[in-house]
Design goal:
Layout: E1 5-13, H1 19-27, E2 30-34, E3 38-42, E4 50-54, E5 59-66, H2 70-82, E6 88-89, H3 92-98, E7 102-107, E8 113-118, E9 145-150, H4 153-163, E10 167-173, E11 177-182, E12 190-194, E13 198-208, H5 211-223, E14 228-235, E15 241-246, E16 252-257, E17 270-272, E18 276-279, E19 291-293
Parallel strand pairs: 1-4, 5-8, 9-12, 10-17, 13-16
Antiparallel strand pairs: 1-5, 2-3, 3-4, 6-7, 7-8, 9-13, 10-11, 11-12, 13-19, 14-15, 14-18, 15-16
The structure holds fe (ii) ion.
């Protein structure tokens, strides 16, 4: 197991600056403007958790995975060499941009960039949520989870499990198929959904420590007429109570509370025929816009 947690996610968007309002006012995150074209969003004492870079279209740029140490990063590099998978060592400039001590970057089988790093910059007691709330659930569980659409599910499954050591949590077969993976007690840090000819970021989930924080974010969406993608509901597998809102960068944020955690000693993989115990009615008329045609 090389990956300890999801450390950061980077996206591109023509509307990056809208995150200066959307991030704090809807989600409670702390925005930091970096130069003319990047908005960093903070969720805890990590330097940043989301990076929205100015770009000509909405798309995912990278996902950053914490491997825990320089030794583990070297071990991962050896694993990649054994498997004949090419990677790039992060430059000093890239490490400074990501606020990490070291990283290497790999393309997954669908061509999305994953960065593996150690030494994320932490600033103790520096996070102040932008509106009254408890806190984001992060720490050893990382920033949350990402769900990626892929044109080649089996190849990606092999990459994340056999090469990187992610473990399957469960599978859902419904209007869309979903395979869920964990790398720490969070039920899933990654899920994959097959979409022919399409790849990209479907949604990012962030978890809050109090159900009232979900209600407060929901109220903000209602009072500003920000359309939801999916209504409030509880998922069958991680038991999370959440809703989905389309962000200014095209992908959805799942804003949730109350997920169970996974203990590998006793965990068994299950399959489900529906995504939710109740709720999560699809409202959005279009799929998340951070998806792109695969090569
Ligand atoms: Fe999710």
């Amino acid at each position: 197991m090389f990956v300890k947690s999801l450390g950061y996610v980077g996206v591109a968007s023509p509307d990056a600056k809208q995150w200066l309002e959307f991030g704090p006012e809807i989600l409670g995150m702390q925005p930091v403007e970096a130069g003319a074209d990047t908005v960093f969003l903070r969720m805890d004492d990590a330097d940043h958790r989301l990076a929205v870079h100015y770009g000509d279209r909405n798309r995912m740029l990278y996902a950053g995975w914490d491997v825990g140490s320089e030794e583990q990063l070297h071990a991962l590099a050896e694993r990649l060499e054994e498997r004949g998978i090419s990677y790039n060592q992060g430059t000093d400039e890239e490490c400074a941009d990501r606020a990490v001590l070291g990283l290497l970057a790999v393309q997954d089988p669908m061509g999305l960039r994953h960065e593996f790093f150690y030494g994320q910059k932490l600033v103790p007691n520096s996070f102040h949520p932008a509106r009254p709330m408890s806190r984001f659930v992060t720490g050893s569980q990382g920033l949350g989870h990402i769900v990626l659409a892929t044109p080649n599910l089996k190849q990606c499954d092999q990459f994340f499990r056999d090469v990187l050591g992610f473990r399957k949590s469960d599978e859902i077969y419904t209007f869309m198929d979903l395979w869920f993976y964990h790398c720490n007690p969070r039920h899933h840090s990654l899920a994959l959904t097959p979409m022919p000819g399409v790849r990209g970021l479907h949604h990012v989930m962030v978890e809050v420590a109090d159900l009232d924080d979900v209600g407060a974010a929901y109220d903000e969406c209602m009072s500003r007429n920000i359309p939801l993608s999916m209504t409030l509901g509880r998922h069958v597998n991680d038991r999370m109570v959440s809703f989905y809102v389309r962000t200014p960068a095209g992908f959805d944020i799942e804003y949730g509370w109350g997920a169970i955690t996974v203990d590998d000693e006793v965990w068994t993989v299950a399959q489900y025929d529906r995504p939710s115990v109740w709720g999560h009615r699809m409202v959005a008329e279009t799929p998340p816009g951070a998806l792109e045609m695969s090569d």
